[in-house]
Specification:
single chain; 205 residues; alpha+beta
Length: 205
């Protein structure tokens, strides 16, 4: 676990695992795994996710220990008071050192900021800060500017790009927020996962 206190738990989700069941009712989800572990320990409370990460996306996800805390955390997300920072590998070379993408998603206002960390052979490494929380926002915004995630298969055709990856290269690497109960600032980070590190080493030119 990346963080835990009396009210919250922040897990570091591996890529390839759903947060909650999909419409296909897949049983092996991060939420189910965590709650099964608690049940075996005889813990009375259950963990409730306060947001979601795509199956492909690795990184930090906040769980509440009980429905009342979940409601408070979800309100913080709704009011855009949670700072989220992602690491992304995108197709092509982004010339701008910093940028902002403003494009509605499903008719709703959406803004994503980015900072270019590195430019490699055929791809760029970005720090991404979504200021709004629309569904698939980062993936759609990056596709919209012509630089989809490396490994993107849902919103881009893999065959259109020479650079391949087993998954969409996106990692939720940092969270900062005011604790819903104590009001203290919580800052939690997650290191680059091994598969992304290996991808960088492989394409180090």
């Amino acid at each position: 676990m990346a963080y835990e206190d009396e009210w919250l738990l922040i897990a570091d989700k591996p890529a390839g695992l759903l947060t909650i069941p999909s419409p296909r009712k897949e049983l092996r989800t991060l939420t189910a795994i965590l709650n099964d572990e608690l049940k075996k320990k005889g813990v009375a409370y259950r963990l409730h996710p306060c947001h979601r990460l795509d199956r492909d996306t690795s990184g930090l996800i906040i769980y509440a220990k009980g429905k009342s805390v979940q409601k408070k955390m979800m309100e913080e997300f709704k009011q855009r008071r949670i700072k989220k920072v992602y690491l992304a590998f995108v197709q092509g070379i982004i010339k701008d050192s910093v940028g902002e993408i403003k494009k509605p998603i499903d008719g709703r206002y959406a803004v994503t900021r980015f900072r270019t960390l590195r430019r490699k052979a055929g791809f760029s490494v970005l720090e991404i800060m979504p200021l709004t929380g629309r569904k698939n926002q980062i993936r759609l915004h990056l596709k919209g500017i012509g630089h989809p995630l490396v490994g993107e298969a849902r919103f881009a055709f893999r065959k259109d790009y020479a650079l391949k990856s087993k998954r969409a290269c996106l990692h939720a690497g940092f969270l900062e927020f005011a604790h819903p109960v104590t009001k203290r600032t919580v800052r939690v980070g997650s290191d680059m996962p091994k598969d992304l590190e290996e991808f960088l080493n492989k394409h180090n030119s």
